[in-house]
Amino acid sequence: MAFCSKCGKAMSPGAVFCPGCGTKVGGSSSGESKLIVYGLTQKFLAGGTLKIYADGILLGEVKKNEKAEYPITNDCVITAKCGINPIKEKTQIKSGITTVIKYEYERVSSSFIAHVSEYV
Ligand SMILES: [Zn+2]
After folding, report:
1. Count: domains in the chain
2. How far apart are CA 9 and CA 39, in angstroms?
3. Computed from CA positions of residues 55, 58, 59, 63, in that sequence, does the dihedral angle turn out positive or negative?
């Protein structure tokens, strides 16, 4: 059992923020947060490699059925492109937490969507 260094409240293992006073006490050993991006999975998409950008700067590429992890040190906006097609959805991510984005192509609307989840 871990305890908050500020108020002494008991915390669940792995907790980043104290449930009592909100002080940041845990987190990864580097103190940085992470972005995890899952590539597209639909078989019918030819190519399908995603280019991932943070505030317009290329972070890297994620091939179909693969995932990539990037360290995040500042709050930023994540955008992506599939080939030459920009994905409209922008994802605001915060430093200090892990953000997971799963991109999916929606056939009905012919557009890419981003499923975002956050973990502290
Ligand atoms: Zn506390």
Report:
1. 2
2. 40
3. positive
* Reported pTM: 0.70
Cα–ligand 1 centroid distance for 16 (angstroms): 11
Q: How far is the CA of 78 from the centre of ligand 1 (A)?
A: 31
For 47, which DSSP code? Answer: S
Task: List the CATH number of the domain containing 84.
Answer: 2.60.40
DSSP 7: T
11 CA → ligand 1 middle, Å: 9
pLDDT in tens, 47-71: 889 999 999 999 999 999 999 999 8
Summarised one tens digit per residue, pLDDT across range 25-48 is 765 444 568 999 999 998 777 788
Tell me, yes or no, whether 20 and 49 share the same domain.
Answer: no
Decide if pLDDT at 94 tops 80.
Answer: yes
Q: How far is the CA of 15 from the centre of ligand 1 (A)?
A: 11
